[in-house]
Design brief:
172 residues, alpha/beta, 5 strands, 39% helix, globular
């Protein structure tokens, strides 16, 4: 591992429930421990505060319904992905509700990153038998699967050299 170099990371993943936010916070904390990571962009922390403030008590839910917020958020997230060296994407979506499929917004962020030659590192807390989509399976650079793998190995992953790290998950 080279020393002194650090990467900018875009942390993709849904943040609409307590469980999702807890998982994202865990990933962020692990990335903060990684010596090859210098900055982590968290979309949840960049919610167009000036626009949200226009809706009384700062109602994000109401602001999200407006084209003004949607356009500003889309462009801010695209700019952040463009500035990132890699995207770390959390696949766990509504696991508490029994839905193993990933969030559509996260899938877009992964696709945009791949189209722009950005490495994608996937994290998935839930170790299940749910198959991985073929396109996703061929696109990722590294995959951290399960709480132990995320906690023990993501903090040591080399975000400068980005070695391939495969997962033994069924593919469809």
């Amino acid at each position: 591992m080279q020393t002194g170099l650090q990467s900018r990371i875009y942390l993709a993943g849904p943040f609409f429930s307590d469980g999702q936010n807890e998982r994202l916070a865990t990933v962020k904390a692990v990335l903060d421990q990684n010596p090859t990571v210098g900055y982590v962009f968290e979309p949840a922390k960049h919610q167009q505060d000036a626009i949200v403030a226009e809706f009384g008590n700062g109602s994000l839910v109401e602001a999200m319904k407006t084209p003004q917020w949607q356009i500003a958020t889309y462009h801010a997230d695209i700019q952040a992905i463009n500035q990132a060296d890699a995207v770390v994407a959390m696949l766990d979506f509504d696991v508490e509700g029994g839905n193993p499929r990933p969030d559509e917004g996260t899938m877009f962020e992964i696709g945009y990153a791949i189209a722009n030659h950005k490495p994608v590192i996937i994290v998935q807390f839930t170790q299940d038998d749910e198959p991985l989509n073929l396109m996703l399976a061929q696109a990722y650079t590294a995959f951290f699967w399960g709480q132990a793998d995320i906690a023990n190995n993501l903090s040591q992953y080399d975000f400068i050299n980005l070695p391939k790290k495969l997962v033994a998950k069924p593919v469809i």
